[in-house]
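Reopening: Cation-transporting P-type ATPase C-terminal domain-containing protein still failing for me.
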Amino acid sequence: MLCLYSNDMAKEGKCFKFNRKLHLVTRLLPTKAIIIHGEQLKLLSNATLQEIVSHYQQVVFSRTSPAQKLQIVEAYQGTNNIVAVTGDGVNDAPALRKADIGIAMGIAGTDVSKQAADMILLNDNFASIVTGVEEGRLIFDNLKKSIAYTLTSNIPEIMPFMSYVIVGIPLPLSLVAILMIDLGTDLIMPFMSYVIVGIPLPLSLVAILMIDLGTDLKRELWDCDTLNDLEDSYGQQWSYAARKGLEASCSAGYFFAVLAIQWSDALISKTRKNSIVTQGMGNQMLNASLLFATAIAMFITVVPGVKNVLQLDGIRLRDAMIPVYYAVVMFIYDELRRWYLRKYPKGFIYRETYF
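Support: Ran it again with your exact input. Result attached.
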């Protein structure tokens, strides 16, 4: 919606029928634009002015006083509009102060208008306002994405310690491995601000690996370094080195699970509403980050010296693919969610899941 007010003369419009005795607009004509003279504006009540500005998309006010400029701003705010006001003179100061965002001219503007404004247009070019709004919205949108991405990557890092304290299972990730997630695979992602709005990381991966290998052991016996014939529920005996090797394999599986979900996170968070097919993969920084994260994961789980420091070990390809299935399901789910957002923009899912 566009509104222009000026101290210059303008020809009065014939867009509405006005009863001067009752101070009422009796009929709004079917048009998109209107010109209102300052003398006409004096006869309009606030309710009538709100009705007019809500009916017409483009309104020009001519020969307006400082009080009327303030009245115009209040009328638009009364119709639930976010109002931006531009001005360069002393008379514009009340309207600049009242508006949601006051924009003063940096070259032609007076000191009073600059002090009353929230933003100063340095080149006095109105086209720069559109560019500024676009960049501001982009920064705000990316800020929300980066915060959400950081929070979702922290959940699988906190859960190992919670499960260790509450349930008593071995730590799925060591402290050094967690640092590798934050400083290695997660290093470039925040700069692109791609985040997840889908389902969380599947925490069942470690349990799947351990059940597959037949363990049903007590924590106290598991950590006993002098016990080398610990027997599980299948009758299989485990030495201390074998138990710790199994634990390192489980940690590597958990590490791969975090990586796979981060892949899905990055692809999902490229767009908040559009499909990834429409958005495309033109962001070369994101593509490089995905490859970099994968290379880091392969490096720290394959190189002997590195994986020993991180307390990780190699895992079978079948086990490494388990989180990939979850990542694909999560990606498909979010594609369906975004399709529903586009189809039903006022529905329950839009209100509860769109941010």
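The chain has two domains: 33-124, 143-353. If you still see a failure, please send the error message rather than a screenshot.
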